[in-house]
Amino acid sequence: xxxxxxxxxxxxxxxxxxxxxxxxxxxxxxxxxxxxxxxxxxxxxxxxxxxxxxxxxxxxxxxxxxxxxxxxxxxxxxxxxxxxxxxxxxxxxxxxxxxxxxxxxxxxxxxxxxxxxxxxxxxxxxxxxxxxxxxxxxxxxxxxxxxxxxxxxxxxxxxxxxxxxxxxxxxxxxxxxxxxxxxxxxxxxxxxxxxxxxxxxxxxxxxxxxxxxxxx
Length: 216
Known about the structure:
Blueprint: E1 3-4, E2 18-20, E3 26-29, E4 34-41, E5 45-47, H1 61-71, E6 74-80, H2 81-87, H3 100-110, E7 112-116, E8 128-131, H4 136-145, E9 149-153, H5 155-163, E10 169-175, E11 183-184, E12 195-202, E13 208-214
Parallel strand pairs: 1-8, 4-9, 4-10, 6-7, 6-9, 7-8
Antiparallel strand pairs: 2-3, 5-11, 10-13, 12-13
């Protein structure tokens, strides 16, 4: 499944999730959710001025277990080139065993991956496609056809879709560190996007997870 898609390729839904009324009749079409998920510093950066993000690697067991529980809800990961090149590390990791890292590798390898990049020439993982761009119409088709939710990682892509009203939830893990600059969690957003808190938890490392619904 590892191949490039072009503008003319068909991304139409192969199956559409529908709600059913009490009489077993199909009702309104249900789209999968698009979730923007990242780890960030307390002052809102996904990496520092040197491009490092090792300060954000929370390794307490409750963080790892919760991350895997979230990952089980996702069927497709959407990345830009840089985020894909970081995450493709998991393609070569051992999926066998009961360790949380083994489980995450197993989950990651089983998902579909879509890489949005004009500079990428090949992918290094199975179940992976890449396309030069992903517009709003194509993303809506993906949400219609997905059996499980979609996750987008990387502030450039996510901020663009958030500004267009296509992101349904934002799930951020804040590390207990301020880095003073770097790549911001959100880029070039219009003003006054409102969110509703859905979930919050604190890990033993001091990192804090928050999940919000994006208000229409």
